[in-house]
Automatic annotation (TrEMBL):
It comes from the Bacteria. It comes from Pseudonocardia hydrocarbonoxydans. PANTHER family: UPF0716 PROTEIN FXSA (PTHR35335:SF1). It holds the Pfam family FxsA. GO terms for cellular component: membrane. This is Membrane protein. InterPro entries: FxsA. Keywords: Membrane, Transmembrane, Transmembrane helix. Signal peptide: none annotated. The chain crosses the membrane at residues 12-41, 70-96.
């Protein structure tokens, strides 16, 4: 409950301050323009985040950045939907890619501090993946290996 009261006080102070500087009509226009611009940006960035997520899934890689971006864009859209100058500004900051990247890095860092296994998983997911087969018996020295298969020199001469 105290958070809601603080939110209301901050929004009222911001609206009164802006209204006293530029007037009531311009303040309403700023609110309307900010909401429309923000919702358009949220839609555009949401589509981009969904496409990036689909691409990551198609490439079979961990999509932690894409999922985080999608969640931040969704949070920004919700903030833009809530009436108010401060929430519109916070929503716009979450929707814009440069500021969203800063927030994403802070969120990932905080999550990795709480759970160190996440950092290990992220680091491993960013490296190259090599498909191969484990061979129990070692190959003879000097035997060439191609794509994980032992090639017999006698079979090479026949082909």
């Amino acid at each position: 409950m105290p958070f809601v009261l603080l939110y209301l006080v901050v929004e009222i102070v911001a609206l009164v301050a802006l209204g006293s500087v530029i007037g009531l009509g311009w303040t309403l226009l700023v609110l309307l323009a900010g909401s429309l611009l923000g919702l358009w940006l949220a839609r555009r960035e949401g589509v981009r985040a969904a496409q990036a997520l689909a691409e990551a899934v198609n490439n079979r890689r961990v999509a932690h950045a894409e999922i985080t971006d999608g969640l931040l864009v969704a949070a920004g859209g919700v903030l833009l939907f809530v009436p108010g100058l401060v929430t519109d500004l916070a929503g716009l900051l979450l929707v814009l890619p440069p500021t969203r990247a800063l927030v994403r890095r802070r969120l990932v860092r905080a999550a990795e501090q709480r759970s160190p296994g996440l950092k290990t998983a992220r680091i491993r997911s960013e490296g190259p993946i090599v498909d191969g087969t484990v061979v129990d018996e070692p190959a003879a020295p000097g035997t060439p290996v191609i794509e994980g298969e032992i090639v017999d020199p006698r079979d090479r001469r026949a082909g």
